Each structure stands twice: as structure tokens, then as C-alpha cells.
What does this fold into?
Amino acid sequence: MSSLLEINNLYAEAEGKQILKGLNLKINKGETHVIMGPNGAGKSTTANVILNNPEYKKTSGEILFEGENINEESTDKIAKKGVFMSFQSPVEIPGISTFNFLKYAKNKVTAKPVKVFEFKDQVKNYMEELSMNPKLVERNLNVGFSGGEKKKNEILQMLVLNPKLAILDETDSGLDVDAIRTVSKGIEMYKNEENAVLIITHNTRILENLKVDYVHILVDGKIVKTGDASLAQEIEVNGYSQYK
It folds into this structure.
């Protein structure tokens, strides 16, 4: 399999505190990976450091995307290379409609003008598949959306942008069972042999309807165990105490 993302011995800090302490991770095309771990282990930090969020500082190690070192690349350039990230708490953006945001983002990522009518049909079809209210696309981005609507909107963005690597940070947080099934459906719609998914979660429910290749346990800034989907079930029963 062809390597998509490779993280080698990565150390990173935020607000002067060391959070990642020698993280190693390799994701190939066609794979679905899951990172689980206790609060404060560095799960969200991992996602933010991959996208080079300026609030986080790499102190050593490297991140390779399709074999290219992206340590010093800006967040927007990393996104253009094909990395997408959904957020735990999607922000509200008054003054720009969901549709215009999607169109603008698609333009930026592809560097090609969007064919509006074709694009509208595509967005409409995705929203139907995700059981989203079609009127949401006309409203300001995430403004007045419920928690579930915001999370579905993140999955809609992923489908529209069609990145090479989708990083989903606690996308299932606060969702009911039906919404989790819908989010899982969106992930399955996106997934193919040429892209990859990295799911960061503390809840195994989102994994019930997905084919997962690897589960990684992250404790105190590094991955301490990797296994198949059964490892997530083991954590559900026994917790993380054995790894601390």
C-alpha cells in the first residue's frame, strides 16, 4: 500500500507544556485508523499539529504527507495538499451562507472555478444522504444549528471537498444514536482505496458501523498500543488504566 501520512518521533507543545512525546504513526491509502485515549493524552493535539495549527509548536520529529515533509507548511497549504479536519466544536460564521462557504472552500482547494448548478446538485444529493434539512445550506454557516446539524455539516464539507486524508476529531461527541449512524454513513460514502480516515474519539459507538483497520491507544503523548477493531471494545470494557 502507498503511504499517505507518516509521523516520526514527533514531540510538540502548547502554551509551553510538552504534550506529544515521541508520537509515531503511519497511515496508508485505503485505511481507516482510530486514535483513542484518556482526556489530556494528546489526541486533539495530534490532529492540530498535522494541520500546523500555530497554537501548537513542534519541537522535534517530522510529519510526511505523500512522502513530503510538511512540518513548516501553513495550514491552508496543507489543506490544499488534501488534508481535511473536522472540529469538536464547529465555529459559527455569521455573514456567509453554508452554500457560499462550501463553494469558496471547493474553489480554494481545487484552484478551479465551481460550476454552480452542478455543484448545487451535488450538495443537495449529499444533504439528502445525510438526512439534512435542505434549508440549512441557505443559512449562515452553523449559526443557530443544533449540535447534530453542525456535525453533519462537517461531514458534508468532507464529502464536498473530497480530501485525500480526513481527520475527524470527536465528530461523534454529543450525538444521539441516529446522528452517529448518519455520520458513519457519510464516512462510508467518502471512503475509498485512494484516501484514508483518521478518527479521534473516546466513544466506540461511531465505530460500530465502520470498517476499522487499526486502533491506536494514545497515553501521555505517545501511542502505547496498536491493534484491530477489537482493541476499541477492550477499552470499552477495561478502560485505559492498564496503559497508564
About this structure: DSSP finds seven helices and twelve strands in the chain. The chain has a mean pLDDT of 91. Residues 32 and 213 are 5 Å apart (CA to CA).
